[in-house]
């Protein structure tokens, strides 16, 4: 392939259209050709994040894309991360460090500064790598947000990036979505939309072919390929929308023994639910996301995952009756695991004036673990290493909460254990194979379930296999020669302008 240079923006007709996996697939395909490639997302709104080796917080999807490219993730790959704490306010993380909590209007006041930071990050990546594959955010035709856009067409215009648009055919209406995405942009933006990729296709190709011809004729733009539906590509997603289509378990298989049932409480502000990917990939383990007390009845393990709004989600637990159901389980010796925010909910009290500035007084937790929590303005970001069940555990942590254990509490991975209740501040601990199997064996014994984890399960290898599957999708189903020309030569000249361009945006 030589030494190509260039960049590309992968946009989408909607959130969860497949931008993240297409970006990762292109990165893996290029890396397998010997190209030095890096991912990039100027602005990401996600509660699934990761900590780089130097302690920077970035979107989990960009860390996954960096793995696909065979490189270490850095803050430049996601210079701006928005972490919603409510419907109106988000924490703004800039180059891996929290800047402020702002509402939508306050955010627009700093957009020019953030645009400069984002463009500087992209410039550094383009200097350091042969190709940079950029991922857009949401849709480029969120016309009410176009003026301040720094992640989609605003970025493409500033950096001169050719753009492909990914459409999700499984949702229906893909041709209208592709055509409308182009038509609602002004002429200068349209000039950068070079073509389309149709994602999640399952059906007869010959029935789709006439539609491809018609969208080419209607827009004057190429279709770079059709990616088939492929089960089991749910690792490291960034958007909670993906939970709607996620299978109950990817690893469930008949092994001649009882299935271990795991119920994960789907909190309103759930964060880092990717912690459960390794459990869902374990043969014989059934993982379900639940929202009602009745769904806990047959669970061997209940997990309270991370949260960006610990007190608000704790109040939701109480309103729904889930808090009482979890407490009842613990009283009967049924296993419960809390991770980060979920761990904090299990303690005796939580004092949070950082994420919940309207709550000046301590709030009672569920009282299932002998500890108290105080939130601090400085965020703890790190990649800790420890030990549990005699096994090495490498993880990462992202938190404002500082937990103090009562005297005599039994430590557990920077957290504690009391009977059948475990809590830890660490994310990613379950990705450690030996620890995961030991923990599940303990859970099964406490729950009285006849379950033994399958020996030899390798989560890291499974992740690599799925990244290879993404690279295979790109290699076998996209016109890679045309795609590489687009990346290296830029947007074709003379693309037609579709009406009603310019009527809505000025």
TrEMBL record:
Pathway: Cofactor biosynthesis; adenosylcobalamin biosynthesis. Residues 9-233 form the CobQ/CobB/MinD/ParA nucleotide binding domain. Gene3D superfamilies: 3.40.50.880, P-loop containing nucleotide triphosphate hydrolases. PROSITE patterns: GATASE_COBBQ, GATASE_TYPE_1. One of its GO terms (biological process) is cobalamin biosynthetic process. Coiled coil: none annotated. Keywords: Cobalamin biosynthesis, Glutamine amidotransferase. Residues 261-434 form the CobB/CobQ-like glutamine amidotransferase domain. InterPro entries: Class_I_gatase-like, CobQ/CobB/MinD/ParA_Nub-bd_dom, CobQ_GATase1, CobQ_N, CobQ_synth, GATase_3, P-loop_NTPase. GO terms for molecular function: ABC-type vitamin B12 transporter activity; catalytic activity. The active site is at residues 340, 427. Belongs to the CobB/CobQ family. CobQ subfamily. Catalyzes amidations at positions B, D, E, and G on adenosylcobyrinic A,C-diamide. NH(2) groups are provided by glutamine, and one molecule of ATP is hydrogenolyzed for each amidation. This is Cobyric acid synthase. It comes from Sinosporangium album.
């Amino acid at each position: 392939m030589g030494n190509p240079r260039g960049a590309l923006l992968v946009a989408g007709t909607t959130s969860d259209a497949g931008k993240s996996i297409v970006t990762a697939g292109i990165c893996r395909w290029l890396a397998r050709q010997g190209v030095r490639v890096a991912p990039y997302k100027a602005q990401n709104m996600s509660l699934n994040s990761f900590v780089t080796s130097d302690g920077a917080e970035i979107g989990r999807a960009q860390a996954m894309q960096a793995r696909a490219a065979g490189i270490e993730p850095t803050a430049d790959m996601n210079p701006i991360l928005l972490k919603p704490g409510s419907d109106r306010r988000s924490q703004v993380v800039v180059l891996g460090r929290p800047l402020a909590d702002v509402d939508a209007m306050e955010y627009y006041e700093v957009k020019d500064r953030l645009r400069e930071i984002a463009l500087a990050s992209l410039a550094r990546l383009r200097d350091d790598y042969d190709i940079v594959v950029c991922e857009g955010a949401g849709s480029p035709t969120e016309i009410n947000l176009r003026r301040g856009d720094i992640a989609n067409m605003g970025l493409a215009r500033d950096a001169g990036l050719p753009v492909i648009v990914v459409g999700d055919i499984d949702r229906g209406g893909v041709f209208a979505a592709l055509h409308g995405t182009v038509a609602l942009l002004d002429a200068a933006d349209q000039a950068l939309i070079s073509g389309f990729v149709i994602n999640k296709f399952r059906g007869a190709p010959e029935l789709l072919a006439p539609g491809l011809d018609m969208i080419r004729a209607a827009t004057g733009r190429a279709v770079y390929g059709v990616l088939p539906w492929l089960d089991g590509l749910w690792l490291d997603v960034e958007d909670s929308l993906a939970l709607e289509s996620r299978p109950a378990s990817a690893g469930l298989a008949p092994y001649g023994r009882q299935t271990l049932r795991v119920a994960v409480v789907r909190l309103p502000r759930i964060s880092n639910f990717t912690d459960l990917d390794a459990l869902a990939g374990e043969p014989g383990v059934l993982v379900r996301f639940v929202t009602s007390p009745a769904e806990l009845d047959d669970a061997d393990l209940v997990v309270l995952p991370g949260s960006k709004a610990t007190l608000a989600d704790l109040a939701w637990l109480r309103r729904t009756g889930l808090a009482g159901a979890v407490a009842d389980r613990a009283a009967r010796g049924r296993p419960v695991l809390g991770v980060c925010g979920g761990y904090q909910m299990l303690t005796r009290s939580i004092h949070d004036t950082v994420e919940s500035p309207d709550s000046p007084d301590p709030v009672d937790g569920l009282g299932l673990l002998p500890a108290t929590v105080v939130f601090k303005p400085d965020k703890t970001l790190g990649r800790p290493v420890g030990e549990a069940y005699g096994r090495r555990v490498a993880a990462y942590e992202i938190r404002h909460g500082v937990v103090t254990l009562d005297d005599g509490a039994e430590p557990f991975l920077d957290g504690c254990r009391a009977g059948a209740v475990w809590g830890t501040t660490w994310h990613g601990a379950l990705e450690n194979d030996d620890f995961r199997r030991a923990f599940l064996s303990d859970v099964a014994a406490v729950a009285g379930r006849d379950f033994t984890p399958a020996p030899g399960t390798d989560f890291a290898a499974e992740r690599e296999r799925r990244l290879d599957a993404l690279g295979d999708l790109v290699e076998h189903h996209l016109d890679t020669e045309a795609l590489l020309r687009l990346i290296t030569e830029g947007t074709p000249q003379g693309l037609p302008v579709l009406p009603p361009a310019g009527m809505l945006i000025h």
